[in-house]
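Collaboration report, partner site 2.

Our partner group contributed sequences for two proteins of shared interest, and the home lab folded both. The records are reproduced in the order in which they were received, starting with the first partner submission.
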Amino acid sequence: MKKIFLATIALLSLAAYIQTATIVDDGKPECDSLEKMNTTFFRNLFDSTAYWICVELYEPAVMQRCPDQTAFLDSVKSCVQWDDWEWEDIV
């Protein structure tokens, strides 16, 4: 009985860890400071053809799309042609 109890505790702990480990951030900012309001564009970590913008302080960021045939390049904070786009590490 003790082994079943310990195995159940271990499985529940593993399930809790897996659930918290799979939470993924899409890069959407909180828009909760003037610094973030002054940083014009934020990279969308799920979709390279989109980016986030803070429009109003303490309001959710708004997702914007790049024009067709372009992708958002975080280092230049702009949409660029796919030929000029390359993966950049998340900072």
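Second partner submission, folded after the first:
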Amino acid sequence: MASFVPRRVFPTLDSLPRSYFLGHHRAGLNKMKTMLTYIDLVIECRDYRVPLTSRNPLFEENLAGRERLIVYTKKDLGSEGRQQDKSRERLIQEWQQPSSVLFSDHKDKSSIRKVLNFARDHAAAKDSLMGSRMMVVGMPNVGKSSLLNALRQVGVHKGKAAHTGAQPGVTRKIGTTVKIIEGDENNEGVYLMDTPGVFVPYVPNAEVHAQTCPVWKRQGHHHSSDDFSRLPTLSDEHL
């Protein structure tokens, strides 16, 4: 049997909706802006498989003024540990300077500990008796809540605090802060706040928009094998 060969050219998708900027996206983003005063670190999640199209410029515009850690989630779905993958990660880290970059699989405790160590070092440098408050942000369905739950489980050995699901939009409101690192006699520890995913208001390029559909499973688009065959051919692969 002949092996599957994905198509290199796809028809124009004029019927594909170009916007997924819902009411709770705008409300969530506005709320995040008002809470920046209390936030020491913004942890922005992006999808390892599509590092370019999972970046939302709205976060950089609206949450400026706070140090940012970028975590590329779902590494287990996009990396086979090849030299090619490692070279790609180095390019991403160079591209994101001066922001710090980590690559994570929420099922891998070693990668979760790297995020915890970064948060712990950041909190120690702040040296506040009140501890440290951090916020996790990102596009819909990039794994924000899964990361928060993993940090909580590894950091303080407690169960899930945030609901997760395969479909986007499970988190629709900013949640309460959740402890991910225990405190000591010098501070209260590190707390992380979950937030709703925020999509960009409009994507003018149909091909770029199609890249996100099979990854984020957005409403209004039924996925075929063609959707997933696009993924290996995206410009993201040529970082």
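Feedback sent to the partner group on the second submission included the following. The two ends are 33 Å apart (CA to CA). The beta strands are 41-47, 67-73, 100-103, 132-138, 177-184, 187-193.
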